Amino acid sequence: MLFKYAVLCAFALVAGNGVAQAQSGIDPTPLIPLVGTGDGYTNFGANAGTNNARDVAFTANDAIGSKPFFKPVFGQPYAISAIVGSNRTYGGIALQNGAAPRVICRELVNGPSYLVRSWGTDGSTYVLLGQSPGDFDSANTFVDINDSGVACFPGLIGGSTQTSVFVGSSRPPTAIRTYNGAQLIRPQISNNNRVVWREPTNKIVMMDYPSQALYAGSTLITTTNNRPGITEDGLVGAFSGARTGNAPGVFLLYKDSNNVVQTLPVIGDTVIDGNIVTSIPDGFRVGVSHLSLYGGIDRVTVSFFGTVNTVTGLFRRDLVFDNWELASRTPLELVAQVGQSIQSYGAITGLTLYESHTAFGDLAPTLSTNVGTVLTQARKFTFKQGDSHWAQQRYCDTNNPNTVGAKGCRMTALAQLMYLYGITGPEGNIITPGDLNQYCQLPGNHDISIRNKGISFDPTLSALANAGGVGKGLTWVAGMKKQPANDTAMTTIIDGHLAAHRPVLLHVRGSGSATTGGHYVLAIAKRTERHWSTGQAVETYVIYDPADRMVGGKKQDLGSLNNSLYDNNVYGFEVYKPSAVSPNHVAPLISITIHSPLEAMITDSQGRRTGFDPVSGQVVNEIPDAAYSFGGGITNPDLESDLSPEYRTLVVPGPVAGTYGLTFTGTGSGTYDINVNNTSLSGSNNLLTVSGTTSSGQVTSTSLYFDGENGATSTVGPDNGKYVQGKINFGATYQGAATPVHLELLDANGNPIRAWDMATGAEGDYQIGKIGQGTYTLTAKGATWLTKARPITIGTGSLTGIDFQLVNGDCDGDNAVTVFDYLILSEAFDSQAGSINWNQAADLDGDKSVTVFDYLILSENFDAIGD
After folding, report:
1. Is the pLDDT confidence value at 169 over 80?
2. What is the pTM of this model?
3. Maximal C-alpha separation, the chain
4. What is the pLDDT at residue 483?
5. Which of 263, 183, 186, 182 is nearest to 225 (CA)?
6. Which of 262, 314, 440, 649 is the 20 to 30 A CA-CA neighbour of 73?
C-alpha cells in the first residue's frame, strides 16, 4: 500500500462556503496586477503567456495600434514588433524560456492574410513560420512555441474545408494531422516536441513530432474540453471533460512506472474529495506543470477555470506521485474568483483564456473587471522568512537576540524543500519555518539544529515530522564551500544534483556583503538568460528566495541569481534528500563520507565508476545520478565559522542490491574516517564508521554490499555472503501483528558497528547480513521489550536458529521495567486507539486497548532490566 501524504499545500477548503481559504499560519499568494486599461492599453488578447522567469507576453492595443508586448519580470512592458498599422491585428501569444525568450503570435492583415511569426524579445528579427495564401487558408490564434523554437498551431486548408495541426520551426510548417471540416483544435507543444490536442471525436491525443508517433491517448472521456494542456517535459497532459453519467471533471493523462497510459481524475468526475464540480466551460486551457524530485517523487500542478461548490473562478491543485502512483491530491486553491476585488481595478466580472505549462505552475490570467481589464500573475506558493506568523520568533534559541525574520533564511529554505518533497508534520500539516523554529527552541534541540552542521539536521527534522508516525524529514547528503581551486568543480557538482532533480541549497551573497556568503536560497533548476547588467547570455540558477528582496523595484520571489543583489555568485551549497516517509515510501541511497586524507571511487556491478580514479588521476562520473563532492566545509553565516572540516562525499541514489567496489587513494599521511550511511528499500537506515591510517598514493580496495530487500544495507570488507537468521518471540500474551525490532551488531569490544530497524515476519522471523567472519554480539529490542543480547561467531557458513525471547513492559523505552512504566500505563488505562488518553506504548498485549491484561504483563516483569 502506498503511503498517503497528508495535506501538502497551503490551502484548505472551508466546509460550507465552498471557497478555498489559507491554512492557518500561511497566506496564499495574491494576484499581482501587471498592466491594464488604466495603463493605456485596450483590447487585450484572450491569451497571455508566461515563462519560468515570470516574464509575461500579451497582445493589446496602445495609442498606435495592435501589438504583441513583452513584460520582463522586473521592468515595464514594451512592444516586440515594429510592424503596426490599422490594418493589422495581433492575437494569440505564447512565450519561451531562455536568455532572449521568443514569442509566437498570429497576425491578421486586412485582405485577409494570416501570418504566424515568432520574435525575439531582445529585438532580434522575426521568423516567419507560416502564411496565407500558400501554407494554409487561415490560421487561428491558438499558437504555442517551445524552448527550442518549435511551434504548433491549427489552420484551415483545402478551401477551408479541412483543419490541420501544424508543427515546425520554419516555413513551411508540417501538417501532422488533418480532419474534415472546420474544427476547434487548440494544441500545445512541450519541449520534447510532443503535441497535445482534442480530436473531433473527443479523444485527447499526445503525439510526437516529427515521428508523428502516438505517445498517449484517452478514450475514457465522452466529452472533453477543446484546450488540453501539456507539461514542459511532455510527460503529463491535462484536460477537462465528463464521463457518461458523471459530473464534469479535470483529468491527467500520463504513463505510469509500467509504461501503461493512465487517465486520472484531479477533481470532479465523481465526488472524490467533497468538491462538487458543476461546470468547466469549453475553450479554457487546462494548465499543467511538473516537477520531478528526488527519490521517485513527482509533483504535478493543475489549473483550470470552472465552477466548484457554486464558486466560479480559477482553481489550482497539486498532486504528488511516488513512482507514478498517486500519493495525494492537495486541497484546492482558489486563485481568482468572480466577484473578487482586485487592487485599483474593482471586482472581477470574468476571466479570459490563459496559457500555462511553466515548471512551477505560475499563471497569467487576464481579468475583466467593472472598471476595465487587467493582466495579472498568480505565482506558486512559497515560504518567506519575514512572514508575520513567525518573523518575530527568536531564531532557534529563545535567548538568541536574532529573529527568524532576520536570520531564518536557511530554515525557511529547508521548510520550502520539505514542502516540495511532500513532507508533512504529525497531523498531515505543512511544516512551516515557524514549526521548525519552535521545535529548535525546545531545551537541548537548538544545539543540534539548523545553527550547526547539516548532518546533525537529520534527527531534528525526523523527530519533528515523525512525532505522529507520519514520516521523517530531510537527510543531509553533501555540501561544500567555495574555494579558489575548485570553483568550477563546485559548479559542476551543483549542476549534477539539479540535473538529477535534487533541489540544492545555495549559500549566496547576503545583504550588504559584497564578497562573502551571508544568505541561503533554494535552487531548483538552471537556465540561460540575459545578464542583468550587460545583456549578454549567462547561465544562472532558478531559485526560491526566502527573503523579500527588492530587485528592480519589485519583490523577488521565484526568480534567479541573475540580478544586482547576487550577480550569479555562489559561495557554497548543501544537498538534502527526503528520509523514508514510511516503510512503503523509501528513497534508497548509498552515501559515503570520507574525512581526509583520502579520495574515493565507487564501482557498480556494470563497471561504471564515480569518484577519483587513481589510475588517471581524474574524477569520473559514470553512474547515473551519482555525485562526488569534494572540498572544504560549509560556512554558517550566523556563526561565521566552518561547520565541518575538509571531506569527500560519494552519493549513489537508487542503488540496486548487490556488491559495489570501493577504492580509496591516500592524499597524505594520517588517519581517516569513513562513514557509510544507507537507506534500504525496506526503509532501514544504517551508519557504519571505519577508521584507519594511510599515506600519500596508497590505494586500498574493498567492497560494499547493499542488501535492498532485508534492510541489511551494507558492510565494508570482503563479501563472504554470510547471513544470520532466527526468530524473535515477543511473548505468548502479545496479540498484535509482527512488530518492528531494532537489531545491533557489536564487535568483540562491545562497540556497535551495524544496526537494523526492520519488521519481522509473521512468525517473528528475521534475517540480516552479509557479515564478515568474526566474533560479535547481536542484540534485539522491540518498542516495549527489553534488550536481549546473544554472542555469535561467523565462520565459514551462515548462522541459523539465532532466536530471541524478549521481555515486555518497557513503556518509556529506558530498557527497564519500573514504576515510571506503571505511571504511563495508568494514564492510558481504559483507553482505546483513538481515545484522547490513548498511548500505544501502554498497549503491551497489542490488542488496541489498555486494560488489566496490560497491567498483568507489566507486573509479571516488574524490576526486569535489559541486557
Report:
1. yes
2. 0.69
3. 99
4. 62
5. 186
6. 314
